[in-house]
Amino acid sequence: MSEPVGGGVSYEKVEDGYFEKRGLKRYAGVFSLWALGVGAVISGQFSGWNLGMGTGGWGGMFVATLIITVMYLGLTFSIAEMAAAQPHTGGAYSFARSAMGPWGGFITGLCENVEYVLTAAVVCFFIGSYLGGIFETPSWAQPLYWIGAYIVFVGLNAGGVAMSFRFTVFITLLALACLAVFWISALPHADFGKYALNVGPGGTELKDGHGPFLPAGVGGALAQLPFAVWLFLAIEQLPLAAEESHTPQRDLPKGIILGMLTLIVSALLVLWLNSSIPAGAFALAKSGEPILDGFRAIYGGSLAKVLAAVAVAGLVASFHAIIFAYGRQIYSLSRAGYFPRALSVTHGVRKTPDVALITGSLAGLAVMLVVWFALGAEKGAAVIGGTLLNMAVFGAMLSYVAQGLSYILLRRKFPLMERPYKSVFGVGGAALTVVISLVTIFYQLKDPVYRTGVIGVAIWFALGVAYFAAIGRKKLVLSPEEAFALNGGKTAYETH
């Protein structure tokens, strides 16, 4: 029996025991949540952020980083408020569902879905590349590394929330320790003027450095916005751990904000010191492994393999944390009926969303394998490391626009909603998030490489919307997220 509501959707009454089969265990505190947020992001500080400096220079990247930092501060403080008020696993989908109805929630959920599934795939690809270099294996062996990585880290995530968070804390601290060793090692060798400012107008290399702060002007700085995103991408996943946190109303805001502050300090140190040692910003702009190149410049090539193995820690931290994210994201959307409900069944003892974890992993791995074998190793690697990466960033930007709008609408729609934490930036911070996200999208669309990724996201969306329009919208369930939205944001009444 379906009960129709507005927006062309209807809710079905589910069988007894539906929610008992979809339960999660509470484990995480502030420290675990901090580690999850930092771990999800940290690989982006090992590589990716540096690729725009060839024309815009260090100064352009610095300006872009400051702008993107403002965007993420507005975003993280906004979601800290919304997550404390709506402590459900749905995260961004949950916020948008309450603010913009079922269709708004679903579209926002799709944005995060493409972001997390493909970000994990791209990070897995980089893990394979590093391991291939360390063990000197042929290119045809790359898919074996991918399959092995998914098996190991899906297994860790499925092994129980306690095991998953313990590993998250360990690998995040290890990745930060790697960065700390790099900062300390680089400091005596740093010559900011000579190396960081060695990009001239037109993208020329200045052998003696001391070039202009903005060699391509303000436009060159704005063009680097999509690259600066990698310094913070995925910190927004923390609300997905709400139902596995002991006291989410208190701990989620603290974990999100502490994580963001940690990443700001780390990002600025990486940007400064990685660019201030030989061979400088010009060479760094072409590097796929800037931290590793920095270690090589300091210690020489003899330690390259050891340093590469250490650098893998940053990639592993993000891979593990993002698998956690898409497992919970798929779980929450399927528990509410937006995705097939079978995807939300949890393990009977461990209470981990095993089906969602496996499904998301198979989707990401399948995309990688299809691209690799259809295009060949060389072209396939370029597409995985380029187009899929750009699809993930584009999905993230769209979700940031939706989350900023959700915050503004919720302040107006549910002014009396209990808010255990309130953003210090308020509506203004959320509005800045929306504006900067839209500007970043504009500069993504100016880049032909990014435009290819946009087409991929459009296909992903078309398939998702077709399913929801034909099937999902008629099979919604009064999950905690849905109940909260329908009850006017006052209380999340029990649904089972």
Note the topology:
Blueprint: E1 2-4, E2 10-12, H1 30-41, H2 43-46, H3 53-85, H4 92-135, H5 142-158, H6 161-186, H7 192-196, H8 217-222, H9 225-228, H10 248-275, H11 281-284, H12 290-299, H13 304-335, H14 354-375, H15 377-413, H16 426-446, H17 448-470, H18 480-486
Antiparallel strand pairs: 1-2
Helix pairs in contact: 1-6, 1-10, 1-13, 3-10, 3-15, 3-16, 4-5, 4-13, 4-14, 4-15, 4-17, 4-18, 5-13, 5-14, 6-10, 6-12, 6-13, 12-13, 13-14, 14-15, 15-16, 15-17
Which descriptors apply to this entry?
496 residues; mainly alpha; Amino acid/polyamine transporter I; two-stranded antiparallel sheet; 18 helices; 1% strand; disordered C terminus; cell membrane; membrane
Please characterize this protein's 3D structure.
It is a multi-pass membrane protein. There is one protein chain. By secondary structure, the protein is mainly α. 68% of the residues lie in helices and 1% in strands. The protein contains 18 helices and 2 strands. It has helices at 30-41, 43-46, 53-85, 92-135, 142-158, 161-186, 192-196, 217-222, 225-228, 248-275, 281-284, 290-299, 304-335, 354-375, 377-413, 426-446, 448-470, 480-486; strands spanning 2-4, 10-12. The chain has a two-stranded antiparallel ribbon. A hairpin with a 5-residue loop joins strand 1 (2-4) and strand 2 (10-12). The longest helix has 44 residues, at 92-135. The relative contact order is 0.20.
